[in-house]
Amino acid sequence: MGKFPIADRALLSIWICKKCKARNPAGSKRCRKCDWTKLRPKRAKKKEAKGK
């Protein structure tokens, strides 16, 4: 991921609503925006290789 492990951990502690894609704090049971109960952890983005 990135250069800073602390920042990477903070990003991965975010939960995303599967319905409206809103960001929610870690450990949330319901979406803060639409009150939906199905949340997923934020996915880690992998670095893409530069084209040759």
Could you describe the 3D structure shown?
The protein has one domain (5-41). It has one helix and three strands, in the order αβββ. It has one helix at residues 5-12, and strands at 15-17, 23-24, 39-41. The protein has a three-stranded antiparallel β-sheet with strand order 2-1-3, with no helix packed on it. Strand 1 and strand 2 form a beta hairpin. The longest helix is centred in the first third of the chain and has 8 residues, at 5-12. It is elongated, with a radius of gyration of 14 Å. The mean pLDDT is 82.
Kindly state the mean pLDDT as a whole number? Answer: 82
Please give the radius of gyration in angstroms.
14 Å
Q: Classify the helix fraction into a percent range.
A: 10-25%
> Cα distance, first to last residue?
21 Å
Number of strands: 3
Range of strand content: 15-25%
Task: Decide which structural class fits the backbone.
Answer: alpha+beta
How many domains in all? 1
Strand count, sense and barrel status of the largest sheet are: 3 strands, antiparallel
| Model regions low in confidence, pLDDT < 50 over at least 5 residues | none
Query: What is the chain-wise order of helices and strands?
Result: HEEE
The global form is elongated
Task: Tally the helices.
Answer: 1
Short description:
The chain is α+β, with helices and mostly antiparallel strands and 52 residues long. The chain is built from one helix and three strands.
Features:
alpha+beta, three-stranded antiparallel β-sheet, 15% strand
